[in-house]
Design goal:
Layout (H helix, E strand, L loop, with lengths): L1 E6 L2 H9 L8 E3 L11 E2 L1 H4 L9 H7 L4 E3 L3 H16 L5 E5 L2 E5 L4 H4 L2 H16 L3 E6 L2 H11 L4 E3 L5 H5 L12 H9 L5 H6 L2 H8 L2 H9 L12 E12 L2 H21 L2 E12 L4 E11 L2 H16 L5 E13 L9 H20 L12 H4 L2 E2 L2 E2 L4 E2 L3
Parallel strand pairs: 2-4, 7-8
Antiparallel strand pairs: 1-6, 1-7, 2-3, 5-6, 9-12, 9-15, 10-11, 10-12, 13-14
This protein binds magnesium ion.
The site of magnesium ion (MG) has 5 residues, from strand 1.
């Protein structure tokens, strides 16, 4: 059995927990109306006026001029998120955080300790309310997919359990948009075919669904029949390292390599939608002595920031004044990359946009379609192709 737990109007709820005078009022986090921001989170009082996340704050202001607009503070949200994670982890060793305020919890095997799933859900919610003063919703079902649908139906503040025998009765009358992968676009396509509910979708012949949704219809049917998302990854670190052809004391080369490896690791980190808190720099000297030094920083995914930390570590190591044989970086201490975290931090926002653009160009034209200025020295030392520099002994372990 899975519990899907989601904190209600998370950013707003944190603001309300920190400032109780905001409780029960229309509150919008995402920026001030004149600032060209978008709504990151709106309280249910504001949603009544048609305000929803992703909407420009200027429009939200027109819909609900008496709302209280806040810029938000992502540091606080991260803190609350990690406290939330700690609380739910006391109930099961199998917790998958899937976003900053949402998790799947496998409660198979924890029932002897904490009781049946409904009881666990009740305890968890009251812990979160007591400790964080934040409301949450919980869905309980046989698969993650169904528990998520149940959780959405339980909002705000509810708990909904769907026993196996009731799954079809539960799903049938719901709109197709509750199913994973059915966003506004696919919902529109299905609507044109007069398929509005899950029941209507189940009754539609496969060939029609295939014409409408392509091969995605197979995944959809798989989910409806009780198939599930694959377990999310158990990745503990992302590392990149290389052994040099010839041991070197050339600092330009060593720093350029550090930048390049950091850049590669961060690009993977962004692809996995993670932020890392810990950077480890590994160096091996010509005498095979190996030094691993780590540093912890605010969670992030920008190579520019990581490199600053890495360069400081490396400078420490290079004091040994010995030739370098191997250099590597490892990122660890992951957090889920919250929704538009960058909105709240200026430098991060700038870097995030830049790196997003870099990733897109490289996704299309190959990694070395763009060279970071810091790595141009590598051109003299290594061949390169679309995939990046051809390091002599690249290790792309995870
Ligand atoms: Mg939420």
């Amino acid at each position: 059995m899975y519990l899907c737990i989601d904190l209600d109007a998370f950013f707003v709820s944190v603001e309300q927990a920190l400032d109780p005078s905001l409780a029960g009022k229309p509150v919008i986090v995402g920026g001030l109306p004149q600032e060209r921001g978008v709504v990151a989170s709106a309280s249910y009082e504001a949603r009544k006026f048609g305000v929803h996340s992703g909407m420009p704050t200027s429009l939200a202001y027109r819909l609900c001029p008496r709302a209280i607009f806040l810029r938000g503070n992502f540091q606080n949200y991260r803190l609350y998120s990690s406290r939330f994670h700690e609380i739910i982890c006391t109930y099961s060793p199998n917790v998958d955080m899937v976003s900053i305020d949402e998790a799947y919890i496998n409660v198979a095997g924890t029932q002897r300790l904490f009781g049946p799933p409904l009881e666990i859900a009740g305890k968890m919610k009251s812990d979160i309310k007591k400790i964080l003063n934040i409301p949450s919703s919980i869905g309980i079902a046989r698969t993650r997919v169904f528990s998520k649908v149940a959780c959405e139906q339980a909002k705000p503040g509810g708990t909904l359990a769907v026993p196996k025998k009731d799954e079809m009765a539960f799903l049938a009358p719901l709109g197709v948009n509750v199913l994973p992968g059915i966003g506004p676009k696919n919902a529109g396509i299905l609507k044109n075919l007069n398929i509005n509910t899950v029941e209507e979708l189940i009754r539609t012949p496969d060939w029609i669904l295939e014409t409408a949704l392509g091969s995605y219809y197979k995944i959809l049917k798989f989910f409806i029949q009780g198939g599930d998302y694959k377990c999310t990854d158990t990745m503990k670190s992302i590392s990149r390292e290389t052994t040099l052809d010839e041991d070197t004391m050339n600092q330009d080369l060593i720093y350029a390599l550090l930048y390049y490896l950091t850049e590669r690791a961060c690009s993977t980190l962004r692809k996995k939608r993670r932020l890392a808190k810990t950077l480890t720099v590994k160096t091996r000297f010509s005498d095979f002595k190996t030094v691993s030094r780590r540093s912890t920083m605010p969670a992030g995914n920008a190579q520019q920031v990581m490199f600053e930390t890495g360069a400081r570590i490396l400078a420490e190591t290079l004091k040994e004044k010995k030739r370098i044989r191997l250099i590597g970086v490892a990122l660890s201490g992951f957090e889920y990359d919250g929704l538009r975290s960058s909105m709240f931090m200026l430098r991060e926002e700038r870097l995030n946009r830049l790196n997003g653009a870099l990733d897109r160009v490289r996704g299309k034209f190959g990694f070395n379609s763009l060279f970071a200025a810091n790595t141009t020295v590598l051109k003299k030392h290594f061949g390169n192709n679309n995939d990046g520099y051809t390091l002599h002994t690249p290790s792309l372990s995870q």
